[in-house]
Write a structure and sequence with these properties.
The chain has two domains: 56 residues, no CATH class; 98 residues. The radius of gyration is 16 Å and the shape is globular. It has eight helices and no strands. It is 55% helix and 0% strand. The protein is mostly helical and 176 residues long.
């Protein structure tokens, strides 16, 4: 089951339905994830309540893709955040120079969040937000992801889509 192990700002985990999730958008707050868990039941081999496929397997289903992002981010450890910072720095010096401007901009924002977190200046970011940032960076810096980056013009499409899902899961935090 996806669990951030934190208290939502509106109340204890699971006691309130997130108003954002109620509008059909899963963005990663504790109440929203708890609501998603209760609708989907056990996350292991559950069927997606939106598309009916096994949860996380339908690439055109927003709920499946959000689940994948949140599930991936939930596996991020503090040492992975440091690795994400280092890998992002390598990416900016290398392959990142060839990427689309919007992808580079999104990567810089995520990288900045991680650097702020590691320096201690971003105390208002919950770890789930930092883990989403690290997950997004680690996905982008992997050259052999869903669409390998060396494939000209299309290699960055999946990276951009993944960062869009990460940004949506972060909600207003990413918009700041």
């Amino acid at each position: 089951m996806v669990s951030w192990g934190e208290t939502d700002r509106d109340g204890p985990l699971g006691t309130l339905t997130c108003p954002v999730y109620a509008s059909g958008i899963l963005h990663g707050c504790a109440a929203c994830v708890s609501q998603f868990d209760s609708e989907a039941g056990s996350m292991d081999e559950s069927l997606c309540p939106q598309c009916g496929e096994i949860l996380g397997t339908h690439v055109k289903c927003p709920m499946c893709m959000k689940y994948l992002v949140i599930e991936g981010a939930s596996m991020i450890l503090p040492e992975d955040v440091k690795e994400a910072r280092e890998k992002a720095e390598e990416w900016f010096r290398g392959r990142g120079k060839e990427g689309p401007p919007e992808l580079i901009s999104q990567m810089r924002r995520l990288y900045g969040m991680i650097c702020d977190h590691l320096s201690g200046s971003a105390v208002d970011y919950p770890f789930r937000t930092i883990s989403l940032a690290a997950f997004g960076i680690l996905y982008v810096v992997n050259p052999m992801d869903l669409i390998p980056d060396p494939i000209k013009r299309v290699g960055y499409i999946d990276d951009s889509v993944m960062l869009a899902w990460v940004a949506e899961a972060m909600g207003e935090t990413f918009a700041k």
